[in-house]
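Example 4.3 (complexes with small molecules)
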Amino acid sequence: MEPAPKLTLNNGVHMDQMGFGTYKVPAPDAASLVVDALKTGYRHLDTAALYGNEEGVGEGLRTFTEGTNTVRDEIFLTSKVWNTDQGYDSTLRAFDASMSRLGLDVLDLYLIHWPCPERGLFVETYRAMEELYRGGRIRAIGVSNFQPDHLRTLLDAADVVPAVNQVELHPWLQQRELAALHEELGIRTVAWSPLGRGAVLADPVITSLAADLGVSPAQVILRWQMEQGNVAIPKASSPERMAENLDVFSFELSPAQRDAIAGLDRNQRSGSHPDTVN
Ligand code: NDP
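Answer. The structure with NDP bound is encoded below.
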């Protein structure tokens, strides 16, 4: 399948609009699942130190590039610094540890996984990431789960505007205020749990739109994500689902169908609220 379209980040780096998420992918399965995702056409992978599968993700990436004409530069890889590693020196150490697990020299995107406001360390953490960025070890830096106030605090202190904010976003949690702020600041919105961890697939509005369009509920939601201008990183466990999730570029939602999805917003999270994670 054709890879997803590429979006340009605020520093000129390109990122596929549809990526493959690896949260809860068990370490022993990670390499083969990543190879399946890359064979399917994904060119953007999302992992994190927390997921415990960086070794497998790196191995899958290398196995795929060694066996095909695809080179490392064509694959966009994100990882994240975990909460307990926040702070200047500990972030530098955590980055080195992630890179050694991944078995790579350069990372495409490194994110602060959660702001952890009670720790009060995200500005220092970001300073370390700016240093790594300036040194060429990371092609873009950004944040995850940042609320508007966290972003403003960071921007007051930072030299580099984050390239992305990766946040929970799906039809039940549309994050319109945050997305508008991202637009104003030149930050890309990356949707985690773009399918609401699967729960939103059974929403009757989504299933009825899927029937009308002759596509699956997952395709309706992911098409909506693309039309909103979001990057989405769905996770799936089979090559069939991986292919289904990437195959959303040959149909469109009508304005009435987009309005129907807009009406599903109910501020319902599948994960934690960023103010409560520390
Ligand atoms: P998703 O919204 O991607 O949903 C994944 C679930 O949906 C799985 O149970 C999967 O089942 C199911 N699914 C996927 N495709 C289909 C399909 N076509 N039909 C039916 N069911 C389907 O949730 P995630 O929480 O995994 O989020 C995606 C990624 O976002 C993560 O993997 C991770 O990379 C990132 N993330 C980031 C966070 C952060 O704090 N920055 C927090 C959480 C996630 P199955 O696996 O059985 O195929």
